[in-house]
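U., I forgot to send this yesterday:
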Amino acid sequence: MKAIAAIDTFVKKIMPLLVVAVLAIGYFAGLGFTKQTIHAVKALILPGVIIMIYAMLITMRMQDLVNAVKYPKELVLGSILSLVIAPVLMLPMAILFTRNPEQYAGLMLAGIVPPGGLITYWTGILDADIGLATAIQTVTLLASLAWVPYGMKIFVGNKVNVNVSLLFQKILIMVVVPLALAMITQRLIVRKGGWKGVLRIKPLCHLTSSTMALLICFIATSVKAAMISKHPAVIALPAVGALLYYLLAYPLSYFASKRIFKLPHDKAIPLTYGFATKNLSIAMGLAAAAFGPLTLLGVVPCALFQMPLASVWYKIFDKLRVKAETPSASDSP
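Result:
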């Protein structure tokens, strides 16, 4: 398991490079695909998504919902920022940097979905309020089961036909079913080895989820390789929009948390990462299953920038924390 943990850590560090590499491999491989091959590759999307989300949810503690009552103000604020204000920020990026309605839907989907595991990861290593982070992650995930279909209808319905009932069905298949299976798996593991048993397999779960995400990236470019070769902007333009979103998301959400809502640093951090980092696994799964490969190509560019910008802001937030904890000369007796 130590070897798997080391591989998982390495994959996390180079994930953006892996995404670029897989996109390139998918593109060149897809140029030689026949119609039968494309059909066969597309058939891998649904099982890949289910495995990806199942592996991701095994280590999530549903008991963390109890923490929500401890943070009523921060939890409501964090949920609104993540589920409502984030897609509002993504909206101009989707309008300006997509030429295809389906890719417009992809960028918006990346903004509408709830935060993923990065909110707790970065909150934890910054020694911020991990309880608030887990509460935001859990509550927004459950709220998104209803919000995502209607959110897509509100933000995307004027450009793409959004079938709300179909989205509900896809969410049930790709999120609720893996969630139920993950909770059953988690309970069986806890019964045998306690929560330590879950923590022991955490690297394997993360690595499995990352592998499936890369598979979906491969599928996205391979089945649309011919189109990409004729229209390179299909990849380039949404990538610019995604980059601008992440460049703006961190300073705006941190400023709002600290200056407008007057939250302390340790609570502003989970709100910021809840706003800026999204569960792109769910976004990619829904894009591929409910809309199609072009919508998926609207989500994939976000995976290029989410982790690198999160790392950059980790360093900034760490310096802000040290500065806040260091007494100024005026505070000296």
